[in-house]
C-alpha cells in the first residue's frame, strides 16, 4: 500500500521558507540615523580643517614677509575688514546678488540650449558626427579664453557676460546628456517601443529618465563651468555700467 505521509514535504517547505526569509534579512541593509558626532567628524571637520589650514598658510606668507606687497597678497584680517565694512554699508548683498543672478540666469539659458542639443547629438548619428567633436573641444577650452572675443564682438555689457556663461556651460550639459543616453540599456528602448513609446514620447518617458545619472553629472559640471566663466568675465571685463559683482572684488 502506497504511503500517504505528507509530513516531510511540509517540513521541507517550511525549511525553504525560513531559508528565504533568512537570506532576505541578510540582504536587507538596516538604515539607521547617523549619529551627530559621526556626521561632524566625517562631513564638517575635514572642510573646516582645510579652510583653517589655507588661512594659516595665507597668514604665514604675510606675517613672515614672504609676500610683503599688500597689493599682491593682503592679510586675511585686511580682507575681513573690507568684507565687514561692505556688509555694514549694505553693499555686500548687492555684490553677491549681481553675480548670483547672472550665474543663475545664464545657467538657465544654457540648460534650455544644452538639453535639446544633447538629445539631438545623442539620437542623430549625422549630428553626432558633425558637431560631437566640436562640443568636446569647446568643453576642454578654458572659459577665460572666451572673454576677449566676447568683449570685441558684443562689447562691455551683460550680453557679453551671458555669452561667456553659455559657451562655458552648454558643452558640459550637452555632453553629459549624451553620455547618459549612451548608457541607456537597449532593453528599455525595446520595451518602450513595444508599449508604444516612440518618438518624443519615448524620449520623454524612457530615454530621459534612464539617462538621468549622466544628465545630472553634466548639470553639475555645467553649473561649475558657468560660475567659473562668470568670474573670469567679471574679473577681466570690469566696467561701471555692468555693476559690481564678486569677480570685480577679486
Brief overview, please?
By secondary structure, the protein is mainly α.
The CATH topology of the domain at 90-249 = MetI-like fold
Tell me the major beta sheet: none
Report the portion of residues in β strands.
under 5%
Rounded Rg? 28 Å
In which range does the helix fraction lie? Answer: over 70%
CATH class of the domain at 90-249: Mainly Alpha
Tell me the overall shape: globular
Number of helices: 11
Overall mean confidence score, pLDDT: 83
SSE topology string: HHHHHHHHHHH
Q: What are the low-pLDDT stretches, counting only 5+ consecutive residues below 50?
A: none
Query: From the coordinates shown, what is the CATH architecture of the domain at 90-249?
Result: Orthogonal Bundle
Number of strands: 0
Decide which structural class fits the backbone. Answer: mainly alpha
How far apart the termini lie comes to 98 Å
Q: Quick one: CATH superfamily of the domain at 90-249? A: MetI-like
GO cellular component, one term: plasma membrane
Main location: membrane
Subcellular location: Cell membrane
Domain ABC transmembrane type-1: 96-250
Amino acid at each position: 500500500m502506497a504511503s500517504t505521509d505528507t509530513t516531510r514535504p511540509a517540513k521541507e517547505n517550511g525549511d525553504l521558507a525560513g531559508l528565504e526569509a533568512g537570506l532576505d534579512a541578510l540582504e536587507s541593509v538596516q538604515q539607521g540615523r547617523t549619529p551627530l558626532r559621526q556626521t561632524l567628524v566625517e562631513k564638517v571637520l575635514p572642510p573646516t580643517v582645510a579652510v583653517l589650514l589655507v588661512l594659516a598658510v595665507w597668514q604665514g606668507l604675510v606675517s613672515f614677509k614672504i609676500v610683503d606687497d599688500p597689493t599682491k597678497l593682503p592679510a586675511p584680517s585686511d580682507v575681513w575688514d573690507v568684507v565687514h565694512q561692505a556688509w555694514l554699508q549694505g553693499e555686500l548683498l548687492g555684490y553677491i546678488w549681481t553675480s548670483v543672478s547672472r550665474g543663475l540666469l545664464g545657467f538657465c539659458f544654457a540648460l534650455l540650449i544644452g538639453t535639446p542639443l544633447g538629445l539631438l547629438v545623442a539620437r542623430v548619428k549625422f549630428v553626432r558626427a558633425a558637431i560631437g567633436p566640436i562640443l568636446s573641444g569647446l568643453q576642454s577650452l578654458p572659459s577665460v579664453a572666451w572673454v576677449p572675443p566676447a568683449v570685441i564682438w558684443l562689447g562691455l555689457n551683460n550680453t557679453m557676460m551671458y555669452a561667456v556663461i553659455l559657451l562655458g556651460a552648454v558643452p558640459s550639459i550637452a555632453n553629459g546628456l549624451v553620455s547618459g543616453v549612451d548608457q541607456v540599456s537597449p532593453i528599455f528602448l525595446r520595451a518602450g517601443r513595444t508599449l508604444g513609446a516612440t518618438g518624443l514620447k519615448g524620449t520623454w518617458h524612457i530615454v530621459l529618465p534612464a539617462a538621468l545619472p549622466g544628465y545630472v553629472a553634466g548639470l553639475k559640471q555645467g553649473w561649475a563651468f558657468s560660475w567659473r566663466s562668470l568670474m573670469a568675465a567679471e574679473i577681466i571685463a570690469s566696467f561701471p555700467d555692468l555693476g559690481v559683482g564678486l569677480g570685480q572684488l577679486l
